[in-house]
Design a protein that fits this description.
Radius of gyration: 16 Å
Order of helices and strands: EEHHHHEH
Strand content: 5-15%
Largest sheet: 3 strands, antiparallel
Mean pLDDT: 79
Shape: elongated
Helix content: 40-55%
Length: 146
């Protein structure tokens, strides 16, 4: 796996330089980020948040080349698991469980927007410890078998 350089951009976000592979042909409008799935990273990264756990797992399993997309897919998986776990533990307090779902929805929408917006610079928008764990899964020592 290629070495990654980190650049602090304040408020908990870091810049992650993914492996840049030039486009195959001059008529290709790709920004140069090759993926295993034939979808541009600007679509694939936000897509990992669309169906939460399901889309995150599918993208982690199918995408092997693009670090940026894998980071967002792992963050989507972890966010979905935490929202589900929190609402299951607090289901007996309906307003709290509803608030957890609402906060998870808005966090996913924010992450979708940032994944789409930051594709050109490959800045990984981290949701605090969730983003740190996702980063360890992709760039560090892999704890889970994906």
């Amino acid at each position: 796996m290629p070495e990654h350089a980190y650049e602090s951009v304040g408020d908990g976000n870091i810049g992650v330089e993914a492996e840049v592979i030039p486009p195959r042909s001059a008529d290709n409008d790709s920004v140069g980020y090759e993926t295993s799935i034939p979808i541009h990273p600007q679509i694939l990264a936000p897509l990992s948040y669309l169906l939460g756990l399901l889309s995150g797992i599918v993208i982690v399993i199918l995408e092997k080349r693009n670090t940026y997309v894998r980071l967002h897919a792992w963050q989507s998986i972890i966010l979905s698991l935490l929202v589900t776990l929190g609402s299951l533990l607090l289901f007996w307090i309906p307003p709290v469980a509803g608030f957890i779902h609402l906060a998870g929805f808005f966090a996913a929408v924010l992450c979708m927007f940032r994944a789409w917006k930051d594709t050109d610079t490959l800045t990984f928008f981290k949701l605090g410890p969730i983003g740190d764990f996702a980063e360890r899964q992709v760039l560090g020592s892999t704890v889970l078998p994906f």
